[in-house]
Structures are given as C-alpha cells and as structure tokens.
Amino acid sequence: MTKKIFRTKSINEFISETQKEGGMERVLGTFGLTMLGIGCIIGTGIFVLTGVAAADYSGPALVISFVIAAIACACAALCYSEFAAMVPVAGSAYTYGYIALGEFWAWVIGWDLILEYAFAIGAVAIGWSGYFANIMTNLGFALPVALVKAPYEGGIINLPAMAIIALVTWINIMGVRQSSAVNNVIVAIKLVVVLLFIALGFGHVNPANWEPFMPYGWSGVFSGASVIFFAYIGFDAVSTAAEEVKNPQKDLPRGIILSLVICTVLYIIVSGILTGMVPYLDFKGQAAPVAFALQQVGYHWGAAVVSVGAICGLTSVLLVMLFGQSRILFVMSRDGLLPGVFGHIHQKYKTPARSSLIIGVITAIVAGFLPIGLVAELTNIGTLCAFMIVAAAIIVLRKKAPNRPRAFKCPFVPLVPILAIVFCGILIWMLPEVTQIRFIIWLILGMFIYFGYSYNHSIISGGLFSGPMEVSNRKAVSQDDHSTKE
Question: Which of 9, 117, 238, 318 fits a 20 to 30 Å CA distance from 325?
C-alpha cells in the first residue's frame, strides 16, 4: 500500500490528458490571467479585513503585516510559477504535488484546496450580502433581517448571498471567455475605486494616528499577517486556468507574478493611508473600514462609491474562486480520486458544468445558513498548508528531474522554497488554536475519504476499481522524467 499511495504521476501523463478531444478551450493570455489574479486577490482583504487587523492585531504597523504576508506569498508564487510553466495543467497545487511527492500528498493538497475555496466562497458571499444590504438601506429599500441573516445571527436565510453565488455559477458554466470578460470589467471598476480612495485619503493622513506604530508588538504584527493573509489568496487561482491558456509556458508565470505585485503595492499604500486617516482603534467592529474612513473625513459620496466598488470586488473574487474550485475538482476526478461527475465537460460550453453546479449549490447552502465567522476561519490555514507542500515539491523535483525543461525557473532554490515553508509555517503557528484543531479534524475526515474511496478508484495507483486497460495505457505514458533526459 505504501508504494501505491506515494506513487507519482508523470508530467507527460498529465499533459497528454489535456490534449484529448473534448477538452477545455484555450482563450486566455497574460492580460486575462493577470486580471483573473487581481480579480480574486483584491476583495475581502482590502475592503473588510484591514479594519479588523488594524484594530485587534497590528495597529498602524498593518503595513508591515502586509509586507510579511507578501513575502510569504512571493516565495510561494515563484514556486507556483515554475510548476505552472512546466506543467500547464488545471489543478494547481494538487497537480504539482502529484508529480513531485505522490498521490497521498496530492490528495492532502487537493483536500486543503477544497476547504480553502468552498469556505472562502461562502465567506465572500456573506460579505457581499452585507454590502448589498447596506446599499439598499441607503437607497431607502431596507431588506428584512430574516432574509439577510443566517439562523445563528437572528435571521432565517441569507438570500442575497445565495443569489450572487447562483449568478456567478451560471456565468462560470457559460464559458471561460464569458467569465474572463465579466471579470475584466469588474476588476477595472474596483481598481478605479481603490485609486479613488488613495487620491481622496492621501490629503487627510495625520501622522499622529501612526503613533504608537506597533501597539501590540511583533507578536501582533505577525498575528495580523496571519489574519490578512486572506487578502492574498487568489494568485494561486491563476494556475487553475492552465488548460485554458493560449501560451501557458510564458503567460502563467507572468499572470501569477504580475497580479501579486500589483495587489501588494496597492495593499501597502491603502493600509498606510487608512491607518493615517483614522486612529486604528476606531476600526474595531467596522465591517467596511475603507468606506468608514472616508465617512470620517467627510467624503460621504466617496464612501458610497467605495461600497459599490466593494460589491464589484467581492463579485470578482467569487467569480474566480468558483472558477478555480471547479477546475481542481475536475482534475481530481480525472485521476479517479473523486467521482466521475466532477470530471464531466459540457459539450457546448467546454466547461466542467456539473462540477460548477455542484459547487454552486453547496456553497450557496453554506452562505445562506451559516455565519461568516464559522465559514471564514479555516480558509487561511488550508492555503498556507498547500503553499508549504508546493514549496517542498519544488525542492524534490529539482533533485528527481534536474534536466526537465523549465520555461520559468524559481530563483535561488532551495533558499526561496525554504523561506516559503518557514514564513507559511510561522503564520500557521500564529493562527488561533481552535482553527488549528478544526483543520486537523478536516484532514482526518479527508483520510477516511481517501482510503475509503479514492485509494480504491485511483487510476494511477491501479486501485481495486480502476480498469486494467486504463491502467495499462497510462503505464505506457508514465516512463517519464525519472528515467529519461529531456
């Protein structure tokens, strides 16, 4: 059993599967990928979590928290970029783990990503609902509490959260070209809104608000970094679009790195201005800190515009997260680790329509009936764990397949991957203990599913339910990097 669960899958094998008829349509370039990344990165983090992190953890040193989280993400992004250019296959970290570390670790990463995307989608949809309800109230059309709150929060159902997930699911099913076009428009709007905040807020920065700069010490700064790490989740979603990219060897690394750089610069500027405009303690309990800061200095119209921008920002996050989740499930199904329904490609739209629909239904239920705190807290730890495994996989594959052609090479290996592992490990350590315990329970549940279903259905491991012809055919392709120089 040990040999089977750690058996790797070759790069040639993965790539050959993408070349079969009935696959997804290749329509994305560097611009589309960069916008996809920005669409997923700029959202909840900048519009919601900045206030929480400043008031409860970092204070004005929120800028340093963003830098620390950015360093961890930058190291991970370089690792992702090498893999994405070398293995232009949907599945992101799951695929990379399968190639370098074997099926078991691939399952662990895939299970982490399911946790990350599913709960993040629910959290973002609930946040979207809050902004939407606020805008409707300001327009004089207050929505009943029973229809905008979960049962645990005094309501019956969060209807707007479910409605936006339904809409975004439909857009994703219609095709990546349509999803990308909608995302580009939304990203343009929210970038204008972020730049508007910078322009309006810059002249109202009071340096006195930056004192004390580090009220909670370095411990608070690192805790703040672990909280606002949610703000950077999204650049990895770019790699899930690999099978829909026109020139993946060049476009994927560019899209990943450009989206992360652009968002990091904007985050640092916004967090500095935000804590300079308003004393950090005033952000306590504020769910819309950017709009709140503008209101405090008299820009009520600016606060209204930012609220609209937040709606757009959260919509694009949902769009990309639902997109990424469906592609990861698609690849796991193709490998036999999940049921075949997740691997079905719609004949007309060339998208994993059934997978997208199932995700939409599940996440809509989560968003409609659970409170935001419960659905959001596990997102960061799942992502950090996946980043650590991808970084380790880079080191392993450099040893196992040193001569494999690499269109993009992560610099300073093994230093950069080790830094990614160390930084992500520190951020995991700084998360609340209850989050760590719940994550362990999630992993245990994943082990039951793997050994109860996935191990017996896995194609590459020749499980009990894998067809012998299918396994034989794949063996013919799997004489790969370990035995040949390319």
Answer: 9
User: Given the structure tokens 């939304």, which residue do they identify?
Assistant: 186
**Which pTM does this prediction carry?**
0.78
Look over the chain and give the mean of its residue pLDDT values, rounded to a whole number. Answer: 83
* Alpha-carbon distances of 142 from 154, 302, 308, rounded to whole Å: 16, 21, 17
* Cα distance from N-terminal residue to C-terminal residue, the chain: 31
Structure tokens at 84: 């994405």
Question: DSSP for 228-242?
Answer: HGGGGTTGGGGGGGG
- Long-range interactions of 201-207: CB distance < 8 A, separation 24+: 201/273, 201/274, 201/276, 201/277, 201/293, 201/294, 201/297, 202/273, 204/276, 204/277, 204/297, 205/272, 205/273, 205/276, 205/277, 206/276, 206/277, 207/276
Q: Are 149 and 286 in contact (CB under 8 A)?
A: no
Cα–Cα distance measured from residue 99 to residue 106, given in angstroms and rounded to the nearest whole number: 8
Residue 474 has pLDDT above 50, yes or no: no
Q: What is the helix (H) or strand (E) element at residue 106, kind and residue range? A: helix 103-138
Task: Provide the strand spans (E) within 93-139.
Answer: none
- b (16+ CB within 10 A) / e for 439-459: beebeeebeeebeebbbebbb
In the block, residue with structure tokens 């004089």 = 140
Closest CA to 240 of 356, 69, 161, 71: 356
DSSP 453: I
Cβ count near 235 (within 10 Å)? 28
Q: Quick one: how many helices (H) and strands (E) in the chain?
A: 21, 0
In this structure, is the dihedral angle defined by the CA atoms of residues 475, 481, 482 and 485, taken in order, positive or negative? positive
Separation between Cα atoms, residue 231 and residue 264, nearest integer Å? 10
Residues contacting 374, CB < 8 A, separation 6+: 152
CA 131 vs. chain centroid, Å, equals 21
Q: Topology of 28-472 in CATH?
A: Amino acid/polyamine transporter I (1.20.1740)
CA distance 79 to 417: 7
pLDDT digits (tens, 9 = 90+) for 328-353: 898 899 889 999 888 878 877 777 88
